[in-house]
Amino acid sequence: MIYIDNNATTRVADEVIQEMLPYLEQFYGNPSSMYGFADTVNKKVQQARAQVAEFINADPGEIIFTSCGTESDNAAINAAINAFPQKKHIIATEVEHPAIRSLCFHLQDKKGYKVTFVPVDKKGRLDFDTLYKAMSDDTAIVSVMWANNETGVIFPIAEIAEKVKEKGIWFHTDAVQGAGKIPIDVKAAGVDMLSLSGHKIHAPKGIGVLYVRKGIKFSPFLIGGHQEKGRRGGTENTASIIALGKACELAKANIPLMNTQVREIRDYLETRLLDEIPATSVNGDRGNRLPNTLSIGFDAVEGESILMLMNQAGICASSGSACTSGSLDPSHVLMAMQVPFKSAHGTIRFSLSHYNTKAEMDTIVETLIPAIDRLRQMSPFWKDGKVV
Amino acid sequence: MIYIDNNATTRVADEVIQEMLPYLEQFYGNPSSMYGFADTVNKKVQQARAQVAEFINADPGEIIFTSCGTESDNAAINAAINAFPQKKHIIATEVEHPAIRSLCFHLQDKKGYKVTFVPVDKKGRLDFDTLYKAMSDDTAIVSVMWANNETGVIFPIAEIAEKVKEKGIWFHTDAVQGAGKIPIDVKAAGVDMLSLSGHKIHAPKGIGVLYVRKGIKFSPFLIGGHQEKGRRGGTENTASIIALGKACELAKANIPLMNTQVREIRDYLETRLLDEIPATSVNGDRGNRLPNTLSIGFDAVEGESILMLMNQAGICASSGSACTSGSLDPSHVLMAMQVPFKSAHGTIRFSLSHYNTKAEMDTIVETLIPAIDRLRQMSPFWKDGKVV
Amino acid sequence: MWNYSEKVMEHFLKPKNVGELEGANAIGETGSLNCGDALKLYLKVNENERIIDASFMTFGCASAVASSSALTEIIKGMTLDDAAKVTNDDIADYLGGLPKEKMHCSVMGQAALKKAIADFRGIQILEKPGEMICECFDVTDLEIIDAVKNNG
Ligand SMILES: Cc1ncc(COP(=O)(O)O)c(C=O)c1O
Ligand SMILES: Cc1ncc(COP(=O)(O)O)c(C=O)c1O
Ligand code: FES
Ligand code: FES
């Protein structure tokens, strides 16, 4: 099997499983309990918190463990809403993940909020002008993702954060996709809140992080017990927290690899596909992308069909964000970029990890050449080697 | 080590770990992805959903996986608030877990809600009169726990649900502690929503369930992707979901054991402690309690000191709800029951699982007799064998 | 669990000077059964105002017991004037530190000592028994405020 869908989810690293297993099997105590048995767990959770903090250059006290990237995103917006109940405006982008985007629609439709969705250009780059002009005294929070999950396009977070903070507005970034692929430094970037998700960086599913800068008046999204210093109720997911700590340590160490070996392999795949399959185009700003992501459109064929043929060859990729697969429309990201329908429908996202090899890329290319050809031969929109 | 703090959290059953491991190690795909690799996971998630449904006599489509009991509780209240935006009254009890109670305080203090907290009597039994009289057209939801986590006192959920439903009001129950100890049947009980938490029934931490009756106009609490049929955003925590399915299957099979062997051992511990340590009393309705729970107060000594001495002997118990340990006050549950301070401060909760043995109970008694004696000898409130 | 030092555990498990003190001529009491911690301190003071013996009775957590034990060890042999300068920080230091959430347990020692000295000197301290409720909760409140500050 060739797994090349790492922006959807990743293989849990063996080292991570080894690290977490004892805390499932043996040390199952609640870290806050009053016995030595719980201490072992508590110390290890503290270590994990330090590892996560180190990964993004935060202080351990600024790390809140959540259940996923979606919860982190929801919690960030919720905190702003609670901190500024009188402010009824939110700024996000058109290409945010549904964890931000759908929440914004909900707030707009049901809770009387006005949301500015900042558009992107054809290469997926933000329209800064719209963003900055939309800021007002009524704006509770600005949320801009660090990098896009579908195209890999990276946004200049430090620059945006600076402009937003100048106005005294809270700034949140969804770094779920940026993390582990490019360096993330919350202090250098100057963000107030930042979301991470474990399963994108070789930790298990069901664990996430919300970084909350010291000084931010945070109110919890999950309200319950005093866990996470009263910032997130619910018994601590100890084994997964410990797993995430280890995963962050590994991810930090792997970032150079991502930007050399993984990038080279991705570029190799991209070049071969562009060279060897006609009427093929890359979505997103090729000059400013995550090193592991390739969103590529094959004109006049349909994504699901391509996926099925790849699946026959044991290749796992995706035709858009995992969250929107199953839906019929091109993803909201491709729509926002005004990718022409002819290639949007035939878009495949390849997302690599350091487990991928160059040999796998050859297999993919050699699978895709005949697959695309076959599909085009039966496509009413393809004739004589081009789109009609 | 003697672990007797199973209302706080439980040991993950070996069978459960075996069941989930392949979905961490090998089958890490997203269940909603478009490749065969994901299918394996998807089928197993469906099986787990069926196992959970079977456990509480629900339909699989009525099961929503969440990250914990707290999230389930929060989500239930949130759904009612969204369904009836004009209704500004909520009914809960004084002895709910913080996942309901603190949320209610938040809604009261910050969101303009009025909350009726139904009181309990000295044995921890609900004041039904107050409950029923508080119901009005303005009531969005009534939430009453199935069984209390500290005392184990069981509430007559079917009876309450019937009265609440007669008025057309939504009824939610937090069955986090009831589940796995006494039979839970959502259809027979006639509840609209019900919360479960995995780590209380030998599944890992970080997985929960919200049962939502078909016909209830549910709106998601975590807003994001289309997972859980749009009822809970966030990539599915596949390994833990699969673990929970298995845990539910085991829990169902173990309920008879809980009500024979475990109950007998608990009763044995209770009798010995009452007989052999003077000035000792049981908190809560002894006639109507979970079979595994014993909340017992030792006059004139302080709980933490008892826990420390037990810890020296390798015994893990708790002095109240795990969530409130670390605070100085007796828990809100003991306060609501008006347990006298002299025994409230010296209350220990023993909560058994089927892993506990009668021999362990003997060790506990033999540890406690000298421990309580020593602490009383240094207590200014104990003289000549009684409280002063 | 609290991160108690070895010294705290030692003084909790094998407290020194436990019990009523025969012939005590100075007694200080603080706390109550209601607030969850209380300390009764007994001193035997000689004509030179030197503490020749001390003992305690404590109802409270492990650090309350350890603090009481430590206090009696610290002040034995001191003059009342010197003892009056003993602070809760001295008690905590003697124990190799206390978790910050537990610092108030040592405050109880300082308070009882103050009262015992006043008792010996025949000074009325205008505090109702049970005052410790407030002190206890004061600290707790401060901690909460602190925690809130830290978070936001
Ligand atoms: C009655 C009750 N409800 C809810 C919870 C919260 O569950 P969790 O820790 O999984 O969030 C607990 C346990 O802590 C509980 O005992
Ligand atoms: C950019 C981005 N944000 C948020 C999420 C949500 O993360 P999770 O699935 O952990 O909730 C994802 C992944 O699905 C993502 O790619
Ligand atoms: S033809 Fe199958 S999805 Fe449209
Ligand atoms: S005496 Fe230690 S908590 Fe109060």
From TrEMBL, chains A, B:
The keyword Iron-sulfur applies. Its EC number is 2.8.1.7. Keywords: Iron, Iron-sulfur, Metal-binding, Pyridoxal phosphate, Transferase. PROSITE patterns: AA_TRANSFER_CLASS_5 (PS00595). GO terms for molecular function: cysteine desulfurase activity; iron-sulfur cluster binding; metal ion binding; pyridoxal phosphate binding. Homodimer. It comes from Desulfobacter hydrogenophilus. Its cofactor is pyridoxal 5'-phosphate. It catalyses: (sulfur carrier)-H + L-cysteine = (sulfur carrier)-SH + L-alanine. InterPro entries: Aminotrans_V_dom (IPR000192), Aminotrans_V_PyrdxlP_BS (IPR020578), Cys_deSase_NifS_bac/arc (IPR017772), Cysteine_dSase (IPR016454), PyrdxlP-dep_Trfase (IPR015424), PyrdxlP-dep_Trfase_major (IPR015421), PyrdxlP-dep_Trfase_small (IPR015422). Residues 2-363 form the Aminotransferase class V domain. GO terms for biological process: amino acid metabolic process. This is Cysteine desulfurase. It comes from the Bacteria. The keyword Phosphoprotein does not apply.
